[in-house]
Q: What sequence folds into this?
């Protein structure tokens, strides 16, 4: 549908740039849906739930992974206003998507589920928005729910933000109630963008996406001057000059425009094929009479978790490389380097923002590229100083230099847990077991608290969240951010099959947790590896010291003892099926190890309160 | 004849075979199998292609079956042209003894009419102990049968009950005695071990009885829980315990040790014979890749690298033949590699084993490893053959997977 917002170079005073931020699942994308409808950019019959969650994996999992921006027309008091709205993801792994979105906005809707109240990512995202000096509009969502308690949570929100409970708006993204008023409030409360129309063009790249048909699509927010399709542009970090093939806006499909002016958000296409040539955080200017001072950039997202990815079938290695190359085009946070494992052959050591990122990447590689993969136990990055003073960064337990280690530094994070006050004891116990240091505690309301801990990243990335959820009946939420490093007493635990270490199962754990880790892995593997035609001893060891052992007894019977008469075909088909099954096993030495055994290293199981190290 | 048919290529309606397949006929032993798809009742563990009178109603009867069988044997003779006389005949089921001695005599006459028999032909029929008698044995001996295979399964009453067997514990041994008295030299008893609730002493009693019966052949099968059978449902619902593979292995060792110390020798994983002459030539022909025509509903055939199988239901079988068409449901023409795989699959289970020449390079290397694992015989390997050791017999399928790519 054509609207006035399709015409660009809107005067800044008639522009409002805002994003929707919230804890995961509090209804951002659903609220965005209502905005798309109310402003008329999506017709009723084209509407579908979470319209902006465009990726298959987002729709399947019901979560947002990529932030999405949309230009919307809105009329208040007969004045035509252009809104640039950005829907952001709520999961902690994708916080960097939120920080980028914030750079393109002057205001943020802080959305809170009226049946849940403030959660850990509510706070994390609020603080990010405040750091960026954004105007905050506090909103309670899901007021249609019977369990909604808007009175209580208005007070909570007001307390945190420092406003009056009456200032907290109430909407239902489901029914649309209150959304019109919310849009009006955005126009009133979010300041219009400021910038120099006459100055040399400066636009901030806040996202860069590879599209099979169009090449790299770069999302920008213009700060000064104008970007027009007739001009060539320069990337200020590299000096590279590009032809502009197209400039446009998203509403909610891409629409080419005459250009973009001060305060406007849109996209440009240059024909480059690699998102790295159009880097997030870079400043775009015009080639002629361009700007000399770039805008302040972003810190690039750094991988927090590493895992080895190996094709189940070694001959798929080139396909895996190609698939990773393609995924990286859209995922600046994904890093990978070739590595070889004695057990698994050729693969890649990949860096991820967190376990969800790992899981999603693996999922996409398997489904979109038809690969079958084994991923090794994830680990964080360690800085290791040996006694000769050399320093190495260890992203793979195999690189652990035993013996000569003087000092090991592990990454730590500031952790926020929000939970009902009845669980304070339980949560504290869990955090202490995971080597946490209490940083502080605040009451959000009479019965809900915020606990702050500093913890080793390795202790929380794997199963901490699951433990937390199961101990608090699902009521606790968690957020964490990097907070430097600390020295730690860590050891590498190896797992040996038939006396041979299997590098894929090695893990670096705190010395106090080594025994538990070793025992658990050995037991788990005994259950997961089927009996072979020979006995298979499993051992866990620190260096040459064995700390746990198990044995997989030899299989006694593997023969079909029945006459099938002359139906030899059936026998052969059965053999073929068994051989297929065998192909799904990874040969580690002579031992057939099922794929699940590797996956299980990742899995979580709640076994109790003992310190666990990581999985 | 297991109850599900494999998928395959369409088989020609006139039953013709590729000329290459028929070309070598006569240079190899030729057998005839006849499938009798009738049982008085269905045993709870059995998924063979067989039907009770109640299930068939008026759609098929032993009479209509016999008529159709004659048609198929005619067709077989036409298709094979200069087929050699059969050196083995095996009438299996189902329950062939339900046809009575007359019926079995007619079946053999039909086979004779179509192909003729070699002078020393082995002619076996399966029989359920409860549907036999001294007269029955005398008559079928006269008709030309040389061997009888009786389904004993067990002598433990509680095991027979779980297996839904209708005969009394003593009947199989008595039947074997009657057959011997009638003049049968070659007799087999089938045993099933590993039935839920079977104890080692139950199996011991069955083995003792089998030895008492004076037969010269024993087949002993671990009970296989087939999908879709009554026993499978009972186990799934938890009404019966399932038998652990380790227990099955122990039972097998028990069977093998009792039979070995009583003059029997294994010649196939599940088959023991008191002498070379007592081995079942018909089955050996299957395992050695020979030619045979399988007649009757759901029967499988193999001639010169072509395998085919008939439609399963007796009514459809008869109707197809009545229309002058081949009852074949589908067939497959084996590739060189298929034939090699089958040789490994089948011959490794035999005491004579498999020539190492059938294996590829990595197969031979794997065989060597299996020798060092104690699963294949060292001396046989040195002589150029892969032969299972006692331990290896219990792991034969796994070894086959190792020997093949
Ligand atoms: N009853 C009710 N349910 C809502 C409302 N808003 C959202 N939901 C439901 O809440 C769930 C999460 O909604 P989303 O819009 O995907 O949440 P989100 O904040 O975008 O989630 P992430 O992007 O993954 O962080 C969905 O099942 C929605 O249908 C509301 O106002 N009322
Ligand atoms: C299919 S029967 C036909 C012969 C005859 N009707 C009888 O029952 O004796 C041949 C033999 O196969 C064996 N058999 C059938 N079903 C079996 C199963 N599920 N597991 C193991 N052996 C089985 C029995 O030992 C049986 O004697
Ligand atoms: S009598 Fe034999 S063929 Fe018939 S159902 Fe029982 S086991 Fe199967
Ligand atoms: Mg969303």
A:
């Amino acid at each position: 549908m054509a609207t006035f917002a399709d015409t660009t170079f809107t005067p800044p005073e008639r522009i409002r740039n805002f994003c929707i931020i919230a804890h995961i699942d509090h209804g951002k994308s659903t609220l965005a849906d209502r905005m798309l409808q109310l402003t008329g950019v999506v017709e009723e019959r084209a509407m579908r739930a979470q319209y902006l969650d465009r990726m298959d994996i987002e729709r399947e999992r019901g979560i947002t992974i990529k932030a999405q921006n949309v230009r919307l027309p809105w009329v208040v008091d007969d004045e035509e206003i252009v809104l640039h709205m950005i829907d952001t993801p709520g999961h902690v792994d994708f916080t960097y998507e939120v920080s980028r979105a914030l750079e393109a906005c002057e205001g943020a809707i802080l959305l809170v589920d009226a049946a849940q109240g403030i959660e850990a990512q509510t706070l994390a995202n609020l603080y990010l928005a405040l750091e960026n000096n954004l105007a905050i509009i506090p909103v309670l969502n899901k007021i249609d729910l019977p369990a909604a308690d808007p009175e209580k949570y208005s007070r909570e929100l007001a307390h945190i933000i420092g406003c009056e409970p009456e200032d907290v708006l109430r909407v239902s993204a489901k029914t649309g109630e209150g959304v019109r008023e919310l849009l009006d409030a955005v126009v009133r409360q979010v300041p219009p963008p400021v910038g120099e129309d006459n100055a040399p063009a400066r636009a901030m790249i806040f996202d860069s996406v590879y599209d099979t048909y169009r090449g790299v699509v770069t999302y920008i927010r213009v700060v000064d001057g104008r970007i027009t399709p007739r001009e060539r542009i320069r990337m200020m970090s590299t000096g590279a000059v590009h032809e502009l093939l197209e400039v446009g806006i998203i509403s909610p499909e891409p629409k080419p425009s005459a250009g973009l002016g001060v305060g406007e958000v849109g996209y440009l296409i240059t024909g480059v094929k690699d998102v790295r040539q159009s880097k997030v955080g870079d400043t775009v200017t015009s080639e002629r009479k361009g700007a000399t001072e770039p805008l302040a950039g972003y810190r690039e997202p750094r991988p927090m978790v590493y895992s080895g990815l190996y094709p189940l079938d070694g001959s798929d290695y080139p396909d895996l490389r190609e698939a990773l190359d393609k995924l990286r085009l859209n995922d600046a946070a994904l890093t990978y380097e070739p590595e070889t494992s004695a057990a698994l052959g050729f693969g890649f050591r990949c860096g991820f923002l967190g376990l969800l990122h790992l899981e999603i990447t693996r999922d996409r590689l398997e489904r979109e590229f038809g690969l079958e993969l084994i991923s090794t136990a994830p680990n964080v990055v360690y800085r290791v100083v040996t006694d000769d003073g050399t320093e190495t960064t260890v992203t793979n337990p195999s690189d652990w230099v035993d013996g000569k280690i003087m000092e090991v530094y592990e990454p730590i994070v500031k952790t926020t847990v929000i939970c009902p006050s009845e669980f304070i004891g339980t949560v504290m116990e869990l955090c202490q077991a995971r080597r946490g240091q209490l940083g502080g505690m605040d009451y959000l309301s009479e019965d809900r608290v915020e606990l702050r801990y500093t913890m080793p990243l390795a202790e929380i990335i794997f199963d901490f969240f699951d433990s937390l959820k199961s101990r608090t009946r699902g009521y606790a939420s968690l957020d964490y951010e990097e907070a430097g490093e600390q020295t730690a007493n860590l050891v590498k635990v190896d797992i040996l099959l038939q006396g041979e270490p299997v590098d894929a199962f090695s893990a670096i754990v705190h010395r106090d947790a080594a025994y538990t880790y070793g025992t658990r892995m050995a037991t788990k593997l005994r259950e997961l590896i089927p009996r072979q035609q020979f006995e298979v001893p499993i051992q866990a060891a620190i260096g040459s010291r064995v700390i746990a052992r198990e044995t997989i007894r030899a299989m006694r019977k593997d023969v079909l003892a029945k006459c099938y008469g002359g139906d030899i075909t059936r026998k052969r088909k059965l053999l073929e099926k068994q051989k297929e099954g065998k192909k799904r096993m990874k040969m580690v030495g002579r031992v057939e190890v099922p794929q699940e055994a590797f996956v299980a290293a990742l899995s979580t199981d709640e076994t109790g309160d003992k310190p666990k190290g990581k999985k | 004849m297991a109850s599900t048919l494999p998928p395959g290529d369409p088989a020609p309606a006139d039953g013709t075979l590729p000329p290459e397949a028929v070309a070598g006929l006569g240079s190899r032993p030729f057998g005839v199998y006849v499938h009798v798809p009738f049982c008085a009742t269905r045993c709870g563990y059995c998924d063979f292609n067989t039907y009770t009178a109640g299930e068939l109603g008026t759609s098929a009867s032993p009479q209509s079956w016999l008529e159709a069988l004659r048609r198929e044997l005619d067709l077989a003779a036409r298709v094979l042209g200069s087929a050699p006389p059969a050196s083995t005949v095996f009438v299996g089921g189902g329950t062939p003894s339900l046809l009575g001695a007359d019926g079995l005599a007619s079946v053999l006459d039909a086979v004779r009419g179509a192909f003729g028999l070699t002078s020393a032909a082995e002619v076996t029929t399966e029989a359920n102990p409860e549907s036999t008698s001294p007269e029955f044995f005398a008559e079928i001996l006269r008709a030309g049968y040389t061997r009888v295979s009786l389904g004993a399964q067990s002598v433990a009453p509680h095991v027979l009950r779980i297996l839904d067997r209708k005969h009394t514990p003593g009947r199989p041994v008595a039947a074997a005695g009657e057959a011997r008295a009638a003049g049968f030299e070659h007799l087999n008893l089938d045993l099933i071990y590993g039935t839920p609730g079977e104890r080692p002493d139950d199996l011991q009693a069955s083995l003792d009885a089998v030895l008492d019966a004076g037969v010269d052949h024993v087949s002993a099968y671990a009970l296989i829980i087939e999908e879709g059978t009554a026993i499978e449902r009972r186990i799934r619902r938890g009404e019966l315990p399932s038998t652990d593979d380790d227990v099955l292995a122990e039972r097998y060792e028990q069977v093998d040790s009792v039979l070995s110390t009583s003059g029997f020798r294994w010649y196939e994983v599940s088959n023991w014979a008191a002498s070379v002459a007592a081995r079942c030539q018909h089955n050996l022909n299957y395992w050695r890749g020979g030619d045979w025509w399988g007649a009757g509903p759901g029967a499988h055939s193999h001639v010169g690298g072509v395998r085919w199988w008939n439609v399963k239901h007796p009514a459809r079988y008869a109707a197809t033949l009545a229309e002058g068409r081949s009852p074949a449901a589908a067939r497959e023409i084996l590739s060189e590699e298929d034939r090699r795989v089958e040789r490994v699959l089948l011959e490794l289970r035999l005491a004579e084993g498999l020539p190492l020449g059938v294996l590829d390079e990595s197969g031979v290397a794997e065989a060597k490893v299996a020798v060092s694992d104690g699963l294949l015989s060292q001396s046989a390997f040195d002589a150029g053959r892969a032969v299972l050791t006692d331990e290896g017999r219990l792991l034969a399928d796994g070894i086959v997977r190792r020997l093949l790519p």
Remarks:
- DSSP finds 17 helices and 14 strands in chain B.
